[in-house]
């Protein structure tokens, strides 16, 4: 059944390619050499895509394909076919126009070469005009997709927020917390730019740093080349971290359960090498001048299909007398499902959504497809005296870029109300 669906998918892609090629043919219809070259390039590029699809079809039969290659191909498919489908709207308009005219002008020859419009001083058929419009329109999503990779992937933004807490000890009034989330080292392609992001965080001079999960995509070895970069993340009161859904190795086929356990041990060692205090359903006291607040970290816990490894009650043990509790929990859905109903935690720090790496943010207005899945997906949320901050993510997954929703370094300041 799966093989049949892939074959059907290939047929649909081929149909889109053949249909969209009409636009190229109509533009170069009087230039045989141009048609020849455009045909060679167009079908050459698409043939590479079909070859990759054939390789993917053989995976169930033991054929091995690099996951990086799969991601690259996935991005190629999204960029090219999103563009072709957008441009095909104009081709559909042209086809619909022809059929309407054929109904009402039965005597008119097929192709309607006699019907012309004046565009930019030249005579051009409506079909040719719509074909050119199709190509121009197709270039918009393709260019935007490329711009999101070249410009958006590492365009780090510092986002600042203040949270007022009535029980905050005076020694912590003005505490600056920097938050990183969703680093996804396995996706990086520009180490220099990543170093720039770390330098930007350090320039904020935070008192403490929180990392809220997803250090890698699939396996711990992805972080090896970046230990030297992220080990520079330090703060006077320490760096505290927790795990995200991608950090457990659940998205990779392991040769044995032992190999997966070894990967998990490597993950714990990676946090130690970074100098980060990994909180696994446990808590720590931050103490300044004899006053204390609690930093709590849980294993990943999310609603829906995401794993529920965390135990909030265990993580809270021994914190009942602490006046302020700060929680590191990767998935924001944890807030409504357990954190608010079952605890007096003041602020949860989360990530996970990436803001879908796509959306619009203008002033106070923000929109992203992420909100179709998550009630809280980016920024600060407050309800009944409890707060949640969702970081938009430092890295990226799948699509190696960002459009509108840029990578984030959070600086959240605690104030006594």
Give an overview in words.
With about 425 residues, this protein is an alpha/beta fold. It folds into 2 domains: about 1-150, no CATH class; about 155-415, Metallo-dependent phosphatases (Purple Acid Phosphatase, chain A, domain 2, 4-Layer Sandwich), CATH 3.60.21.10. It has helices spanning about 1-25, 30-55, 65-105, 125-150, 190-205, 225-230, 255-275, 310-315, 335-340; strands at about 115-120, 120-125, 155-165, 175-180, 210, 240, 275-280, 280-290, 290-295, 325-330, 345-350, 360, 365, 380-385, 385-390, 410-415. The strands form 4 sheets. A 6-stranded mixed sheet has the order 3-16-4-5-6-7, covered by helices on one side. The chain has a 6-stranded mixed sheet with strand order 8-9-10-11-15-14, covered by helices on one side. Strands 1-2 form a two-stranded antiparallel sheet. The longest helix has about 40 residues, at about 65-105. Residues about 110-120 have low confidence and may be disordered.
CATH architecture of the largest domain: 4-Layer Sandwich
Low-confidence stretches: 110-121
Order of helices and strands: HHHEEHEEHEHEHEEEHEHEEEEEE
The total of helices stands at: 9
CATH class of the largest domain: Alpha Beta
**Mean pLDDT figure:** 85
| C-alpha-based Rg, rounded | 27 Å
Roughly what percent helix? 25-40%
Which word captures the global form?
elongated
CATH superfamily of the largest domain: Metallo-dependent phosphatases
Assess the beta-strand content as a share of residues: 15-25%
**What fold name stands as the CATH topology of the largest domain?**
Purple Acid Phosphatase, chain A, domain 2
**How many separate structural domains?**
2
Class inferred from helices and paired strands: alpha/beta
Oligomer: single chain
Q: Strand arrangement, largest sheet?
A: 3-16-4-5-6-7
Q: How far from one another are the termini?
A: 61 Å
Task: Please count the beta strands (DSSP E, at least 2 residues each).
Answer: 16
Summarize the biggest pleated sheet: 6 strands, mixed
